[in-house]
Amino acid sequence: MEIENQKILIEEAKAFGVCLDKEAIKRFDTYLRELLKWNQKINLTAIRSEKGIVLKHFLDSLSVKPYLPEQSCVLDIGSGAGFPGIPLKIVQPALRMTLIDSVHKKVDFQKHVIRMLGLRGTEATHGRAQDGEIVQNLGGRFDITLSRAFSDLRTFLVLSFPFLKRGGTAIAMRGETDTKEIGLLTETEAIPYRLTRVVKLALPFSHFKRTILLFEEI
User: In the prediction, which pLDDT does 40 show?
Assistant: First the structure.
Protein backbone atom coordinates (compact mmCIF):
# COMPACT_ATOMS: atom_id res chain seq x y z
CA MET A 1 0.00 0.00 0.00
CA GLU A 2 1.36 3.39 -0.93
CA ILE A 3 2.42 5.57 2.01
CA GLU A 4 -0.17 8.24 1.11
CA ASN A 5 -3.01 5.71 1.16
CA GLN A 6 -1.71 4.20 4.38
CA LYS A 7 -1.79 7.64 6.01
CA ILE A 8 -5.35 8.23 4.79
CA LEU A 9 -6.45 4.89 6.26
CA ILE A 10 -4.81 5.58 9.62
CA GLU A 11 -6.07 9.16 9.97
CA GLU A 12 -9.62 8.68 8.70
CA ALA A 13 -10.16 5.48 10.73
CA LYS A 14 -9.84 7.61 13.87
CA ALA A 15 -13.20 9.21 13.03
CA PHE A 16 -14.76 5.80 13.77
CA GLY A 17 -12.81 5.29 16.99
CA VAL A 18 -10.27 3.00 15.33
CA CYS A 19 -6.56 3.35 16.08
CA LEU A 20 -4.67 1.14 13.65
CA ASP A 21 -1.46 -0.47 14.91
CA LYS A 22 1.33 -1.86 12.73
CA GLU A 23 -0.17 -5.35 12.68
CA ALA A 24 -3.56 -4.05 11.50
CA ILE A 25 -1.90 -1.98 8.76
CA LYS A 26 0.06 -5.04 7.66
CA ARG A 27 -3.17 -7.02 7.38
CA PHE A 28 -4.95 -4.29 5.43
CA ASP A 29 -1.96 -4.11 3.10
CA THR A 30 -2.07 -7.87 2.48
CA TYR A 31 -5.85 -7.72 1.97
CA LEU A 32 -5.44 -4.90 -0.55
CA ARG A 33 -2.74 -6.70 -2.54
CA GLU A 34 -4.69 -9.96 -2.66
CA LEU A 35 -7.87 -8.15 -3.69
CA LEU A 36 -6.10 -6.41 -6.57
CA LYS A 37 -4.43 -9.66 -7.66
CA TRP A 38 -7.60 -11.79 -7.58
CA ASN A 39 -9.60 -9.01 -9.20
CA GLN A 40 -7.56 -9.42 -12.37
CA LYS A 41 -9.07 -12.89 -12.83
CA ILE A 42 -12.52 -12.69 -11.23
CA ASN A 43 -14.87 -9.77 -10.71
CA LEU A 44 -14.62 -9.00 -6.99
CA THR A 45 -15.00 -5.23 -7.16
CA ALA A 46 -15.41 -2.50 -9.78
CA ILE A 47 -13.04 -0.33 -7.73
CA ARG A 48 -9.52 -0.99 -8.99
CA SER A 49 -7.33 1.71 -7.47
CA GLU A 50 -5.56 1.49 -4.10
CA LYS A 51 -7.04 4.77 -2.92
CA GLY A 52 -10.52 3.80 -4.04
CA ILE A 53 -10.35 0.52 -2.12
CA VAL A 54 -9.05 2.28 1.00
CA LEU A 55 -11.83 4.88 0.88
CA LYS A 56 -14.83 2.99 -0.49
CA HIS A 57 -14.19 -0.46 0.95
CA PHE A 58 -11.92 -0.31 4.00
CA LEU A 59 -13.04 2.97 5.59
CA ASP A 60 -16.66 2.49 4.57
CA SER A 61 -16.61 -0.90 6.31
CA LEU A 62 -15.11 0.60 9.46
CA SER A 63 -17.90 3.19 9.67
CA VAL A 64 -20.13 0.68 11.52
CA LYS A 65 -17.46 -0.27 14.07
CA PRO A 66 -18.84 2.10 16.77
CA TYR A 67 -22.12 0.11 16.81
CA LEU A 68 -20.63 -3.35 17.40
CA PRO A 69 -20.22 -4.46 21.02
CA GLU A 70 -16.74 -5.88 21.59
CA GLN A 71 -17.53 -9.61 21.54
CA SER A 72 -20.58 -9.67 19.28
CA CYS A 73 -21.48 -12.63 17.10
CA VAL A 74 -21.97 -11.05 13.65
CA LEU A 75 -23.40 -12.26 10.32
CA ASP A 76 -22.39 -10.31 7.21
CA ILE A 77 -25.03 -11.08 4.55
CA GLY A 78 -23.97 -10.67 0.93
CA SER A 79 -20.36 -10.06 1.91
CA GLY A 80 -18.92 -10.10 -1.61
CA ALA A 81 -15.15 -9.65 -1.35
CA GLY A 82 -15.45 -9.57 2.45
CA PHE A 83 -16.94 -6.15 3.14
CA PRO A 84 -17.66 -5.01 5.76
CA GLY A 85 -16.95 -8.20 7.74
CA ILE A 86 -13.22 -8.70 7.22
CA PRO A 87 -12.12 -5.08 7.87
CA LEU A 88 -14.25 -5.09 11.04
CA LYS A 89 -12.66 -8.36 12.18
CA ILE A 90 -9.17 -6.92 11.57
CA VAL A 91 -9.80 -3.99 13.92
CA GLN A 92 -12.02 -5.83 16.42
CA PRO A 93 -10.51 -9.33 16.80
CA ALA A 94 -12.95 -10.42 19.53
CA LEU A 95 -15.84 -10.40 17.06
CA ARG A 96 -17.10 -13.80 15.96
CA MET A 97 -17.69 -13.14 12.29
CA THR A 98 -19.58 -15.19 9.71
CA LEU A 99 -19.62 -14.10 6.07
CA ILE A 100 -22.18 -15.42 3.60
CA ASP A 101 -22.35 -14.92 -0.16
CA SER A 102 -24.05 -16.72 -3.04
CA VAL A 103 -21.07 -16.45 -5.44
CA HIS A 104 -18.68 -19.36 -4.95
CA LYS A 105 -15.59 -17.57 -6.24
CA LYS A 106 -16.12 -14.67 -3.85
CA VAL A 107 -16.40 -17.09 -0.93
CA ASP A 108 -13.18 -18.77 -2.11
CA PHE A 109 -11.50 -15.36 -1.97
CA GLN A 110 -12.88 -14.70 1.51
CA LYS A 111 -11.51 -18.03 2.75
CA HIS A 112 -8.13 -17.29 1.17
CA VAL A 113 -7.90 -13.89 2.90
CA ILE A 114 -9.08 -15.30 6.23
CA ARG A 115 -6.28 -17.89 6.08
CA MET A 116 -3.64 -15.38 5.00
CA LEU A 117 -4.54 -12.92 7.75
CA GLY A 118 -4.94 -15.57 10.44
CA LEU A 119 -8.40 -14.33 11.40
CA ARG A 120 -9.54 -16.79 14.04
CA GLY A 121 -13.24 -16.94 14.76
CA THR A 122 -14.11 -16.06 11.15
CA GLU A 123 -16.13 -18.29 8.85
CA ALA A 124 -16.98 -17.87 5.15
CA THR A 125 -20.11 -19.68 3.96
CA HIS A 126 -21.36 -20.20 0.43
CA GLY A 127 -25.12 -19.91 -0.01
CA ARG A 128 -28.13 -17.62 0.14
CA ALA A 129 -29.58 -16.30 3.36
CA GLN A 130 -33.01 -17.64 2.36
CA ASP A 131 -31.77 -21.22 1.83
CA GLY A 132 -33.40 -23.61 4.27
CA GLU A 133 -30.15 -25.41 5.08
CA ILE A 134 -28.36 -22.13 5.82
CA VAL A 135 -31.17 -21.01 8.12
CA GLN A 136 -31.16 -24.38 9.87
CA ASN A 137 -27.40 -24.27 10.44
CA LEU A 138 -27.05 -20.60 11.41
CA GLY A 139 -30.50 -19.60 12.70
CA GLY A 140 -30.74 -17.78 16.03
CA ARG A 141 -26.97 -17.53 16.49
CA PHE A 142 -26.22 -13.85 15.95
CA ASP A 143 -26.29 -10.67 17.99
CA ILE A 144 -25.96 -8.59 14.83
CA THR A 145 -26.66 -8.97 11.12
CA LEU A 146 -24.94 -6.62 8.67
CA SER A 147 -25.65 -5.66 5.08
CA ARG A 148 -23.78 -3.36 2.76
CA ALA A 149 -25.74 -2.75 -0.45
CA PHE A 150 -27.34 -6.18 -0.28
CA SER A 151 -30.85 -6.25 -1.80
CA ASP A 152 -33.50 -3.75 -0.73
CA LEU A 153 -34.03 -2.79 2.88
CA ARG A 154 -37.21 -4.81 3.36
CA THR A 155 -35.60 -7.98 1.99
CA PHE A 156 -32.58 -7.57 4.25
CA LEU A 157 -34.75 -7.17 7.34
CA VAL A 158 -36.92 -10.17 6.47
CA LEU A 159 -33.92 -12.38 5.73
CA SER A 160 -32.09 -11.24 8.87
CA PHE A 161 -34.87 -12.15 11.26
CA PRO A 162 -34.29 -15.95 11.52
CA PHE A 163 -30.57 -15.47 12.19
CA LEU A 164 -30.85 -13.02 15.08
CA LYS A 165 -30.98 -13.86 18.74
CA ARG A 166 -33.95 -12.40 20.56
CA GLY A 167 -33.46 -8.63 20.81
CA GLY A 168 -30.67 -8.70 18.21
CA THR A 169 -29.76 -5.82 15.90
CA ALA A 170 -29.88 -5.58 12.11
CA ILE A 171 -27.53 -2.94 10.70
CA ALA A 172 -28.15 -1.78 7.14
CA MET A 173 -25.52 0.29 5.33
CA ARG A 174 -27.38 2.31 2.70
CA GLY A 175 -26.89 5.38 0.55
CA GLU A 176 -29.00 8.49 1.14
CA THR A 177 -32.24 7.26 2.72
CA ASP A 178 -35.64 8.75 3.48
CA THR A 179 -36.26 7.98 7.16
CA LYS A 180 -40.03 8.57 6.78
CA GLU A 181 -40.10 5.78 4.23
CA ILE A 182 -38.32 3.51 6.71
CA GLY A 183 -40.92 4.26 9.36
CA LEU A 184 -43.73 3.40 6.99
CA LEU A 185 -41.96 0.19 6.02
CA THR A 186 -41.80 -1.11 9.57
CA GLU A 187 -45.33 0.04 10.44
CA THR A 188 -47.28 -1.00 7.38
CA GLU A 189 -45.61 -4.35 6.74
CA ALA A 190 -45.54 -5.45 10.38
CA ILE A 191 -41.82 -6.22 10.19
CA PRO A 192 -40.80 -7.09 13.76
CA TYR A 193 -38.15 -4.39 14.21
CA ARG A 194 -37.88 -0.98 15.77
CA LEU A 195 -35.65 1.63 14.10
CA THR A 196 -33.34 2.74 16.93
CA ARG A 197 -30.73 4.87 15.21
CA VAL A 198 -29.99 6.67 11.95
CA VAL A 199 -26.41 7.82 11.30
CA LYS A 200 -25.57 9.90 8.23
CA LEU A 201 -22.03 10.53 7.08
CA ALA A 202 -19.94 11.31 4.01
CA LEU A 203 -16.92 9.23 3.11
CA PRO A 204 -13.65 11.21 3.15
CA PHE A 205 -12.37 12.55 -0.19
CA SER A 206 -15.67 11.53 -1.74
CA HIS A 207 -19.16 12.83 -2.49
CA PHE A 208 -20.64 9.48 -1.47
CA LYS A 209 -23.21 9.72 1.32
CA ARG A 210 -23.64 6.78 3.67
CA THR A 211 -26.62 6.16 5.95
CA ILE A 212 -26.32 3.55 8.70
CA LEU A 213 -29.63 2.23 9.99
CA LEU A 214 -29.90 0.22 13.20
CA PHE A 215 -33.00 -1.90 13.76
CA GLU A 216 -33.69 -3.79 16.98
CA GLU A 217 -35.68 -6.99 16.79
CA ILE A 218 -38.89 -6.79 18.87
Answer: 93
Which parts of the chain fold into alpha helices (H)?
3-13, 22-39, 50-53, 60-62, 85-91, 104-117, 132-138, 153-160, 179-188
Give the number of other Cβ atoms within 10 Å of residue 103's Cβ. 16
pTM of the entire predicted model:
0.94
Name residue 148's beta-bridge partners.
173
Cβ contacts of 136 within 8 Å, gap of 6 or more: none
Which residue, among 86, 75, 127, 77, has the nearest Cα to 109 in the 3D structure? 86
Domain spanning 3-217: CATH superfamily:
Vaccinia Virus protein VP39 (3.40.50.150)
At 149 the pLDDT is 73
- The separation between CA 90 and the C-alpha centre of its own chain, rounded to angstroms, equals 12
